[in-house]
Amino acid sequence: MQNYQVALIVGSLRRESLNRQLAGAVMRLAPDWISFKAIEIGDLPLYNQDDDANPAAAVQRLRADVQGSQALLFVTPEYNRSIPGVLKNAIDHGSRPSGQSVWAGKPAGLLGVSPGAVGTAAAQQHLRNVLSCLDVPLMPAPEAFLQAQPGLFDADGGFGASAKDLMQRWVEHYLAWLKRHAD
């Protein structure tokens, strides 16, 4: 079976963020033919088109890491009913200069967890809008809008009993999506 590298982009910079925990728990459910490359986005300068001809080292690293991956997994919190600015900034850096997007054609999954009752539904919808114009094939279903509740994660960093089956099914759909679109 072919091995795939997935660029993992977490839209939160906080070390102990719920979305970082979610990303870690998802990685535990993946088979060994999937490897994840955590994409650092916290050190990127604010996007400025004037810098396209001479991008910062952090921008060059982001672009190389995404180009070296066959698929994408975005795990985002919801800030004010949208995606965090740091995530949008990373997407902008990867999509520029015009015609040189590193995101194009890479199959993607979207996830997020939030204390709110609807999870990250609005953020994921906004992220879908952004990525759709960048030629990113987005897994349409199932969607997962997780609410942070006691028992979501177990003491070892995996999913608790209340979420494990749901998230295992999500991962299986994502892997099928990846294989269908990354080959």
Strand order of the largest sheet: 2-1-3-4-5
Helical content, roughly?
25-40%
Strand content: 5-15%
Stretches where pLDDT is under 50 for at least 5 consecutive residues are none
Helical segment count: 5
Which structural class is indicated by helix and strand composition? alpha/beta
Radius of gyration, in Å, reads 16 Å
Report the count of strand segments.
5
Order of helices and strands: EHEHEHEHEH
User: How would a crystallographer describe the biggest sheet?
Assistant: 5 strands, parallel
Compute the separation of the termini in Å.
12 Å
Describe the structure.
It is globular and about 50 Å long. The chain has a five-stranded parallel beta sheet, sandwiched between helices. 37% of the residues lie in helices and 15% in strands. The chain is an alpha/beta fold and 183 residues long.
Q: Any key phrases for this structure?
A:
15% strand, 5 strands, 5-stranded parallel beta sheet, alpha/beta
Describe, in short, the structure shown.
The protein is of the alpha/beta class.
Secondary structure layout:
Elements: E1 4-10, H1 18-29, E2 34-38, H2 57-67, E3 71-75, H3 85-95, E4 108-114, H4 121-132, E5 145-147, H5 161-182
Parallel strand pairs: 1-2, 1-3, 3-4, 4-5
